Amino acid sequence: MGSKASRNTSIEALRLVAVAGIAIFHTFQWTFQAVCTGLPEYAPLAVFPYSGALGFINLLGCWANEVFFMISGYFLIPSAVHALQNRSSARGLIYKSFTRLKKIVLPTLFYCTACLFVSMYVYPLPEISLHEIGWLTLGIEFIWVYAASVLLVPMIALARQRIGSKRAPFVVALLVFATFGINCYIAATANEVAGVVLWRKLMSAVTYLVAFIAAGEMRFVLEHHGNASGAQKSKIALIGLVTATITLELLLSKNSQYDALWKLSYKSTSVISFILAVASVATAALHQPRHEVPAADKTIMSLAAGTLAFYAVQSFTCNVWRPIFDKAIYTMATGIQTGEPHPAGAILLGILMSLCLALALLLVDIVRKAVVDAIKDRMNS
User: What is the per-residue pLDDT across 51-66, written as a single tens digit (0 to 9) for each?
Assistant: First the structure.
């Protein structure tokens, strides 16, 4: 499966691609919804192939979140299982989980405090105040579900030991099928069943945890079967899946099947996003780079380490940057100022703005870490 260093570089590069996916998804989230619900002012983006491009972009949100969970599950669960096999205690595993939890919670609390300070004394951030709690709960639910998943690692490892290595893949497969069976039902009845939004929120958390567990089991499978041939096959499978997904989105766009476009990528429960995430993580895990580029590897590692910071700050500031992005996309797409619509240009502009925002937030976290390290060095000296 390659050396640990090269594997980690490939995995961290995938994490950065997922960050870009989340940023682009959030930028176009409401634009895609407006297209699917038939708002007349968004008609230039509702035609082929632009609605298909937006449909594919809308898959990126769920794909990226599942990639984040899968990367962690891929490493943490097998590590815990091997520790138990080497007679480590459950108490020791729990201690490690709480140590990892600290690395999740402390930076998150730092950015919570920083954004609250900015909102109170520098520039008001909508909904960020001591009188609101939504921005600390549902606003960053992804982070809290991720933290809970990390805490559950010892129990997941113990459960796998009880189940046994031969039965574990089948149990996990059954769990995946059951989860996405419910998800498909939710997507199909999204406009019919009362309370489905609450179910969708609950199933988002369940889906991410299942992705976390599935990736841990996938690691055992790849370690048993993975080789140079497996790396090539996973790459071909990923390319094929991406091509098939884009083709499907474009076919639906061509036939103006907006309801199908919406349900195909419904919120955080898309089975297509899950399959793409599995193929992405497998490809990155098995990838063996021909040449090592230390400077590039270091840059990738440094940027990827700011994933949680990116997610938190993007969420806290969304009511500041999103109206600006939405207006820019709408203005270019509709040609409201020039009289000539440019839907392709609007999509490219939205992608560019998303990537710039993501890079800026990742760089902010690099600066934060540099300051923290400098303070620690000063205190130690």
Answer: 999 999 999 999 999 9
Compute the distance between CA of residue 268 and CA of residue 265 in angstroms, rounded to an integer.
8
Percent of the chain whose predicted confidence (pLDDT) is above 70? 93
Residue 214: other Cβ atoms inside 10 A: 26
Question: What DSSP state is assigned to residue 123?
Answer: S
pLDDT of the residue at 4: 41
126 prior amide bond cis, ω within 30: no
pLDDT at 341 over 60: yes
| Closest listed residue to residue 49, CA positions, set 352, 318, 344 | 344
Q: Count other Cβ atoms within 10 Å, centred on residue 128.
A: 22
Domain ranges, residue 14: 4-380
What tokens appear for 90 in the block? 């459950």
Torsion of CA 142, 7, 165, 175, to 10 degrees: 30
How long is the chain? 381
DSSP one-letter string for 150-198? HHTHHHHHHHHHHH-TTTHHHHHHHHHHHHHHHHHHHHHTTTTSTTHHH
Domain count across the chain: 1
- 4 near 219, Cβ under 8 Å? no
- CA 314 from chain centre, in angstroms, equals 13
CB-neighbour burial class of residue 328 (10 A; exposed 0-12, middle 13-18, buried 19+): middle
